[in-house]
């Protein structure tokens, strides 16, 4: 970024951009806690954990608003162009992805609290798959936040490509739920709840994947959001870029 008439320098812009990054990473830490607590609450039938997730939901929304405010101030003061503007846009999209991941955690927490009153165990037939999905989703968030913090393209690629494993686990869990319904067709309400819960975790993984793709765009300037049916690393190779993940 060139020095302008107002005396802006690369170093001062980097300081402001780092503040925006720090806010995003802080929000990500809260989003990670929300997902971890929501899925644990369901597995352990812990009403207090679920209630905590719902109580903290406004904090995620506050972070989302703060990120937008910091970004708008940065744009107004520094008038960035090119890669600098791209970095700000990517971080803004990151706030959106984390807020939506938090929404999915809230959904799981609400279902958990309802089940504590009504009874039933919608994940009885897919408990192991749900546990693996939850672990994968939390790891994806944790890793993509590290990629944001360190601008680690290789790590971002691994996060994006690892989402396939979560998708496979999701399909396996759905099959188990469907088989359980076939053997007990009167249990349709639990099947519905299970489908909502599993989809929520799958979507959390998608938001981590999306953020990982934004990080790659920030670094490489190549938009890979709509890549389907192939690994991100392969797509970058086809674009003439070396795969940094090995």
Describe this structure as you would to a colleague.
The protein has 246 residues and is mostly helical. It has one domain: Methane Monooxygenase Hydroxylase, Chain G, domain 1 (Up-down Bundle), CATH 1.20.58. It has seven helices and no strands. Helix 4 runs parallel beside helix 6. The chain is globular and about 65 Å long. 39% of the residues are buried. The N terminus and C terminus are likely disordered.
Kindly state the number of beta strands. Answer: 0
Unreliable stretches: 1-8, 240-246
Q: Given the C-alpha coordinates, what overall shape results? A: globular
Just give the CATH class. Answer: Mainly Alpha
- In the CATH hierarchy, what is the superfamily? Phosphate transport system protein phou homolog 2, domain 2
State the CATH topology: Methane Monooxygenase Hydroxylase, Chain G, domain 1
- Quote the beta fraction: under 5%
Succession of helices and strands: HHHHHHH
Averaged pLDDT: 87
- The structural class is mainly alpha
Indicate the percent of residues in helices.
over 70%
Q: How many helices does DSSP assign?
A: 7
- How far is the first residue's CA from the last residue's CA? 31 Å
Radius of gyration: 20 Å
CATH architecture: Up-down Bundle
Count of folded domains: 1
Largest sheet entry: none
List keywords for this structure.
7 helices, 246 residues, 0% strand, mainly alpha, single chain, disordered C terminus, Methane Monooxygenase Hydroxylase, Chain G, domain 1, globular
Please describe the topology of this protein.
Elements: H1 10-44, H2 47-78, H3 82-118, H4 127-150, H5 153-183, H6 188-220, H7 232-238
């Amino acid at each position: 970024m060139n020095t302008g008439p107002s005396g802006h320098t690369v170093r001062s812009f980097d300081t402001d951009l780092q503040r925006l990054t720090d806010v995003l990473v802080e929000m990500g830490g809260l989003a990670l806690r929300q997902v971890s607590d929501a899925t644990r609450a369901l597995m352990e039938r812990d009403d207090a954990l679920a209630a905590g997730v719902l109580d903290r939901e406004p904090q995620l929304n506050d972070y989302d608003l703060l990120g937008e405010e910091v970004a708008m101030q940065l744009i107004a003061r520094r008038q960035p162009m090119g890669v600098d503007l791209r970095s700000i846009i990517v971080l803004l999209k990151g706030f959106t992805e984390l807020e939506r991941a938090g929404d999915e955690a809230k959904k799981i927490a609400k279902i958990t609290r309802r089940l504590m009153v009504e009874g039933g165990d919608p994940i009885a037939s897919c408990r192991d798959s749900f546990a693996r999905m939850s672990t994968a989703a939390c790891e994806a968030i944790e890793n993509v936040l590290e990629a944001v913090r360190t601008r680690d393209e290789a790590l971002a690629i691994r996060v994006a490509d690892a989402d396939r494993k979560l998708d496979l686990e999701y399909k396996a869990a759905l099959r188990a739920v469907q088989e359980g319904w076939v053997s007990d067709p009167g249990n349709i309400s639990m099947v519905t709840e299970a489908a909502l819960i599993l989809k929520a975790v799958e979507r959390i993984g998608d938001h981590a994947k999306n953020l990982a793709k934004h990080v790659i765009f920030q670094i490489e300037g190549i938009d890979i959001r709509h890549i389907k049916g192939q690994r991100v690393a392969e797509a970058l190779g086809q674009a003439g870029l070396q795969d940094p993940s090995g």
